Amino acid sequence: QKEVEQNSGPLSVPEGAIASLNCTYSDRGSQSFFWYRQYSGKSPELIMFIYSNGDKEDGRFTAQLNKASQYVSLLIRDSQPSDSATYLCAVGLTGNQFYFGTGTSLTVIP
Amino acid sequence: GAGVSQSPSNKVTEKGKDVELRCDPISGHTALYWYRQSLGQGLEFLIYFQGNSAPDKSGLPSDRFSAERTGGSVSTLTIQRTQQEDSAVYLCASSRSGINTDTQYFGPGTRLTVL
Hints:
The structure holds two protein chains of two kinds.
Chain A: E1 4-6, E2 11-14, E3 19-25, E4 32-38, E5 45-50, E6 54-58, E7 61-66, E8 71-76, E9 85-92, E10 98-100, E11 104-109
Parallel strand pairs in A: 2-11
Antiparallel strand pairs in A: 1-3, 3-8, 4-5, 4-9, 6-7, 7-8, 9-10, 9-11
Chain B: E1 5-7, E2 10-13, E3 19-24, E4 31-37, E5 43-50, E6 53-56, E7 65-69, E8 75-79, E9 88-95, E10 105-106, E11 110-114
């Protein structure tokens, strides 16, 4: 079982819609959760991080964490074509180990 | 510099040769990470440094891979006797303090092609 699982997609949404990206993790000791965006041929860049159960909002982005279900999600409201990228979920464990999922490819259709 | 830098940006080598990849982290960042990303895959953790020490080397794929960091700054990832399966983008990241709640900032990567 992989430490971090993501649906590889591709996920397509029309411009202006809500894109929902999901991630599950296996280690209950996971302490920190990150969403990175990676454009084709570029390096990952941080979108959001979340440490506590519940929702965290930043502009058009909302991260949701449910530790009981070992589930973290990213919602993108009012999706724009510029949001088209691969979204990587990352989990930080004790001992400073980080595990990344394989990413979900998102396409926002104008 | 303002961000993490890596060199070379591209490296083409022949099977069996040794290669060195360099990472220059953000100034003042104590933690440094190396990852490998194969085509269409996620990031595979290789190794991380806290200062000059590498507490966790468990991600290194084989004993052909080694890394060092000197002066708490620049790090070098060395791959000996390269194989075709080593072809990938090697990404370096740094973070301020190295605790697992820190944001990692990634460099542009080195694309390694082993012929």
